[in-house]
């Protein structure tokens, strides 16, 4: 099993920045495309950002384009989400997820492994 652990969440003022990290176990991290999703109580799970296995392609939800940046360091088995210009509506639990063989996808059911999540709260 691939184990994913998120960190870096917290409380931030609107307009501020936060950097989330996702640490992956295993020896095949470089073969997985990675994604970030967020979940708010009472709402559907929402795709935020995705990155290809090599890191050469990224894709973002319209709501975060220009503000968030996904990146990865395969040598360290890490994926990151840099969040700038945060808004109150960005408040959610953020999960990283891994999927193999399909490249970037926005569809949650196509991801094979999920982290436990980290809370991001934006005040305004």
Q: Please, could you describe this protein's structure?
A:
This protein has 124 residues and is mostly beta strands. It has no helices and eleven strands. The radius of gyration is 13 Å and the shape is globular. The mean pLDDT is 95.
Short description:
This protein is mostly beta strands. The chain has no helices and eleven strands.
Query: What share of the residues does DSSP label as strand, in percent?
Result: over 45%
Q: Please bin the fraction of helical residues.
A: under 10%
Number of helices: 0
Largest sheet: 7 strands, mixed
- Residue windows where pLDDT falls under 50 for at least 5 positions: none
Number of strand elements: 11
Euclidean distance between termini CA atoms:
40 Å
Radius of gyration from CA coordinates = 13 Å
Average pLDDT, to the nearest integer? 95
User: Helix-strand pattern, N to C?
Assistant: EEEEEEEEEEE
Q: How would you describe the shape?
A: globular
Structural class: mainly beta
Topology, element by element:
Layout: E1 4-7, E2 10-13, E3 18-24, E4 32-39, E5 46-51, E6 58-60, E7 68-73, E8 78-83, E9 92-100, E10 113-114, E11 118-123
Parallel strand pairs: 2-11
Antiparallel strand pairs: 1-3, 3-8, 4-5, 4-9, 5-6, 7-8, 9-10, 9-11
């Amino acid at each position: 099993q691939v184990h994913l652990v998120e960190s870096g969440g917290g409380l931030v003022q609107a307009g501020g920045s936060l950097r989330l990290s996702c640490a992956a176990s295993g020896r095949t991290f470089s073969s997985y495309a990675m994604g970030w999703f967020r979940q708010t109580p009472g709402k559907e799970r929402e795709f935020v950002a995705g990155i290809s296995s090599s890191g050469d392609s990224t894709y973002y939800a319209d709501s975060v384009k220009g503000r968030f940046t996904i990146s990865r360091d395969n040598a360290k088995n890490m994926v990151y989400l840099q969040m700038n210009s945060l808004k109150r509506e960005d408040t959610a639990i953020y999960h990283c997820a891994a999927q193999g063989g399909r490249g970037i996808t926005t569809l949650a059911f196509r991801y094979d492994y999920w982290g436990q999540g980290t809370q991001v709260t934006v005040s305004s």
